[in-house]
Amino acid sequence: MKNEAAFAAIAGVNPIPAASGNTVRYRLNRRGDRQLNRALNVI
Predict the structure, then answer these.
(1) Is this prediction's pTM over 0.85?
(2) pLDDT tens per residue, range 1-23
């Protein structure tokens, strides 16, 4: 992986922009490698 952002995207732990108008919000990413995400939570 090239950098930490790429790893986060693959693991599904990066935030997803969910902006509406002038409001800036972020949602949890429910995609990605669920087994890798689980391993990160166990550690």
Answers:
(1) no
(2) 789 989 988 998 899 999 988 99
Provide CB contacts within 8 A for 17, sequence distance 6+.
Answer: 24, 25, 26
SS3 call for 16: strand
pLDDT > 90? residue 37: no
- In eight-state DSSP terms, residue 21 is T
CA–CA gap between residue 36 and residue 43 (Å, rounded):
11
Q: Return all residues near 9 (Cβ < 8 A) that are at least 6 apart.
A: 29, 32
Strands (E), 1-43: 15-17, 26-28
User: 38 CB contacts (<8 Å, ≥6 apart)?
Assistant: none
